[in-house]
Amino acid sequence: MEPGGCLRGVIRVPGDKSISHRAIMLGSLADGTTQVSGFLEGQDALATLAAFRRMGVDIEGPADGRVVIHGVGLHGLRAPDGPLDMGNSGTSMRLLCGLLAAQPFATTLIGDASLVARPMRRVTEPLARMGARIVTTGQGTAPLSIEPVPALRGIDYPMPIASAQVKSSLLLAGLFATGRTCVTEPAPSRDHTERMLAAFGYPVERAQGRVCVHGGGRLTGCTLAIPGDISSAAFFLVGASIAAGSDLLLEQVGMNPTRIGVIEILRAMGADIAILDPRDCGGEPVADLRVRSAPLRGIRIPEPLVPLAIDELPAVFIAAASAEGETLLTGAEELRVKESDRIQVMADGLAALGVPVEPRPDGLSIQGGAWAQSGLEGARAPVSIDSHHDHRVAMSFAIAALRAPAPIEIRDCANVATSFPDFAALSARVGLRIRVV
Ligand SMILES: O=C(O)C1=C[C@@H](OP(=O)(O)O)[C@@H](O)[C@H](O)C1
Ligand SMILES: C=C(OP(=O)(O)O)C(=O)O
């Protein structure tokens, strides 16, 4: 990454990752055919797709974001011929855990080095209360061995953390359980599962942070248009905000209210983001976003926004480093159990770039405006940043190059392909000085 430059032009980021996973899962369990457009052809969503193929579902594509799923009905999945590899994808593993706990065959879920270090008891414990039999390692991690049981029973579960993965895992198990399965959230988390169940004609009760489904219904195949992923758009929202002279239009970005925390945070910092032509896209709100560079100031990030911006926080840290004054994040301990420990790994990278940063157990403080006094100005040798195989860390530091005082070399970034395979090409097209070696 060469320092400097700005972002200008019009781009469309790839389809939403969370929605792409759910489209494959619910389309596979539906009666009839589901036509999907805008599917994210990234490794995480492809891991979900491959798992359902191995359980006997006929899935055409993906070709140019189009997928056709020939659903087998709620009880039509077949035993796979070996362990299902979820790669780097926490969403695949946790959601499938709930769905597979209800199947009449055994399965084993495995993943890469990052995924097998992530906590799984948050789903296996409430699923056990529903009657599921799932064996984890002694540390509560994958591989997960899921054994068939005669039946699951609905529970009423108050979630200790605001996690859409936990909520969705239980709701998917609830489709097969006797009686009613209810989940209460301590704070709102993304609601794509609830919205998509409704799109497939499955009744979902929602009131005051509580979601319930009755087992034994059916899903009907439908047509789904998946909006652009705001988590991928976030890198450009930050990049165009911090690089003087930027003016970027991001088309068709998902604007689900449970996902737009990043826009609220950046606007509170002074970002100039216009929401244009808000409209509906298959049960999900979308809009075009025009972002122009603006002077940013540090803020205290309101805790209720944390679950609504959880995957975008690494990019927000780059905005904070470029802002005037201090930014303080608290209530975000979940960042420590993502693809990497995103608090520590981001803090280490920012410190290497001369940014004063103090990690805390549940967040960090970043002293902005220090790029210029970092002692790195005009440096020829690149500052080397280890992304720890974390796609969001790698893309955040790529965007940082727009303001950083020295060239940046980012190591271990193959996993960018998990969520945003075209990131390098797309960002170069609008002005990022990026070179893939
Ligand atoms: O349900 C989902 O699709 C996701 C939920 C979030 O995880 P948590 O449920 O662990 O907060 C998020 O970080 C992840 O990238 C995708
Ligand atoms: C945390 C993420 O994904 P997952 O939990 O599905 O691995 C992410 O994409 O930032």
UniProtKB/TrEMBL annotation:
EC numbers: 2.5.1.19
Active site: D311
Cited InterPro entries: Enolpyruvate_Tfrase_dom (IPR001986), Enolpyruvate_Tfrase_sf (IPR036968), EPSP_synthase (IPR006264), EPSP_synthase_CS (IPR023193), RNA3'P_cycl/enolpyr_Trfase_a/b (IPR013792)
GO molecular function: 3-phosphoshikimate 1-carboxyvinyltransferase activity
Assigned keywords, A-Z: Amino-acid biosynthesis, Aromatic amino acid biosynthesis, Cytoplasm, Transferase
Enolpyruvate transferase domain location: 3-424
Chief location bin: cytoplasm
Binding site for 3-phosphoshikimate: K17, S18, R22, S163, Q165, D311, K338
Top-level taxon of the source organism: Bacteria
Quaternary structure and interacting proteins, as annotated: Monomer.
Function: Catalyzes the transfer of the enolpyruvyl moiety of phosphoenolpyruvate (PEP) to the 5-hydroxyl of shikimate-3-phosphate (S3P) to produce enolpyruvyl shikimate-3-phosphate and inorganic phosphate.
HAMAP family per record: EPSP_synth
Protein name: 3-phosphoshikimate 1-carboxyvinyltransferase
Organism: Thioalkalicoccus limnaeus
